[in-house]
Amino acid sequence: MALHRDIFWIGRQWAVTGFGIQAVDQRLRGVLDIEIARLWDDDFVQSRRAKPGLNLEDFDKALTLARTRYPQAPPPECTPVRAATELPPAPVPVAPPPKPAPPVVLALRAEGRLARFLPQWRIRR
Q1: Res. 110: pLDDT tops 70
Q2: CA quadruple 59, 46, 7, 69: dihedral positive or negative?
Q3: Who has the most CB within 10 Å: 14, 44, 60, 107?
Q4: How many CB atoms lie within 10 A of CB 23?
Q5: What is the C-alpha radius of gyration for the chain, rounded to an integer number of angstroms?
Q6: For residues 33 and 37, what is the distance between their CA atoms, to the nearest angstrom?
Q7: Could you tell me which of 119, 98, 30 has the C-alpha nearest to residue 17?
Q8: What is the pTM of this model?
Q9: Of 32, 70, 44, nearest to 24 (Cα)?
Q10: pLDDT of residue 1
Q11: In the chain, domain spans
Q12: DSSP result, 33-51
């Protein structure tokens, strides 16, 4: 897979992009890439780290930079729960959208005349 268009850091073998961590070598076709959602999955990261021919220093730096750029989201069970006595927030009144302007109608006044006798006009740029 080609590198994502948003490149935040690039090393010798790894790059931190908008996709996550990607191998710079395009011959691998994205086999070793780690997407943002799996940056914090330690088992998955260790499986990538165990591959032969990996520059561990470069990989560790890319992992550190990617984890600082994309912090781990809190697990869903840690979200605060609203009390049953709380009322939902009041809806915000929405203003009606402005009415569109009437379309401009161009009037052609050439009816009943011969075109060769009309004055010529040109659009200036």
Answers
A1: no
A2: negative
A3: 14
A4: 23
A5: 30
A6: 12
A7: 30
A8: 0.55
A9: 32
A10: 64
A11: 7-69
A12: -EEGGGTT-HHHHHHHHTS
